[in-house]
């Protein structure tokens, strides 16, 4: 006889295993940094760029395994190289940005698959890479998430005003003395860091959703950029908590459950009359 859901919830709350605690701590850490960064991703319409970085994860995993270092570091290196390649290609202005992203995304994914095919001894869960496996988070992963997240937050605070000026009007920001090329490049690097440390939570196919959906939800409820960044982080944390609970209670894939929880919140806020949303 199946255990009632209420009983399972009590057990989950009262006697959480270490791996569940690590999973929640990791998920909250990712949500806290994805919120502010996601606000700029939404404002600057860079969701495809996040997907491109995520597609490079397989190559990073294979690189880390082949060279015998942490796979998260491998993903970070490949993501940064990809961000740098896009930055240089954008400066040449020979192709539209979306075309460049399409080329880089599929080239990185194909290179990762080919590279992994040559590693006969590589044993990894491809489904976990594609959709995330937050329950397998280790103490080392927590160091990556919170260490990388803290650095990203410090840099983002420093870049906040230049990025806002660029988002409003890039040419005007240049006239006012903002180094737009440097700001754009550093923002790409920040996204590369977050994609690298977040993939274990929601996976290659879902990472962009954690950047975009909480920020898109917060946009309707916010009056200032700072409010939107803070609300996006809070909504991301709620999505992580709700998704983890759903994953435990109904034996669902954790990454997908987190994303679907965030999507439900987005739909509810989007369906709420605008006047009421603004008064809430």
Index terms:
ABC transporter involved in vitamin B12 uptake, BtuC, globular, mainly alpha, 0% strand, 280 residues
Task: Estimate percent helicity.
Answer: over 70%
The CATH architecture assignment turns out to be Orthogonal Bundle
Biggest sheet character: none
Cα-based radius of gyration, to the nearest Å: 19 Å
For the record, what is the CATH homologous superfamily label?
Answer: ABC transporter involved in vitamin B12 uptake, BtuC
Number of strands: 0
For the record, give the distance between the C-alpha atoms at the N and C termini, rounded to a whole number. 44 Å
Summarize model confidence as the mean pLDDT.
79
What's the order of the H and E elements? Answer: HHHHHHHHHHHHHH
Q: Unreliable runs, pLDDT <50, ≥5 residues?
A: 276-280
Number of helices: 14
For the record, what CATH class applies?
Answer: Mainly Alpha
Named CATH topology: ABC transporter involved in vitamin B12 uptake, BtuC
Briefly note the structural class of the backbone.
mainly alpha
The assembly state of the depicted protein chains is single chain
**What is the beta-strand fraction?**
under 5%
């Amino acid at each position: 006889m199946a255990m009632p859901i209420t009983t399972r919830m009590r057990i989950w709350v009262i006697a959480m295993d270490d791996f569940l605690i690590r999973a929640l701590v990791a998920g909250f850490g990712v949500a806290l940094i994805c919120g502010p960064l996601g606000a700029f991703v939404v404002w600057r319409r860079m969701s495809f760029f996040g997907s491109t970085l995520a597609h490079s994860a397989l190559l990073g995993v294979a690189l880390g395994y082949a060279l015998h270092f942490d796979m998260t570091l491998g993903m970070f290196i490949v993501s940064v190289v990809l961000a740098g390649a896009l930055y240089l290609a954008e400066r040449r202005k020979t192709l539209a940005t979306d075309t460049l992203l399409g080329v880089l995304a599929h080239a990185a994914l194909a290179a990762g698959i080919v590279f992994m095919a040559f590693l006969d001894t590589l044993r990894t869960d491809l489904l976990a890479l594609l959709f995330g496996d937050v329950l397998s988070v280790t103490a080392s992963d927590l160091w990556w998430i919170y260490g990388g997240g803290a650095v990203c937050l410090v840099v983002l605070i420093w870049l906040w005003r230049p990025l806002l000026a660029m988002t409003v009007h890039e040419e005007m920001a240049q006239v006012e003395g903002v180094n737009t090329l440097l700001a754009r490049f550093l923002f790409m690097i920040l996204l590369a860091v977050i994609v690298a440390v977040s993939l274990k939570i929601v996976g290659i196919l879902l990472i962009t959703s954690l950047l975009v959906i909480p920020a898109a939800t917060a946009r309707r409820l916010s009056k200032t950029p700072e409010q939107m960044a803070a609300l996006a982080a809070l909504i991301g944390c709620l999505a992580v908590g709700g998704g983890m609970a759903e994953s435990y209670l109904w034996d669902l894939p954790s990454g997908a459950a987190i994303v679907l929880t965030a999507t439900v919140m987005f739909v509810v806020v989007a369906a709420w009359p605008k006047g009421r949303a603004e008064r809430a």
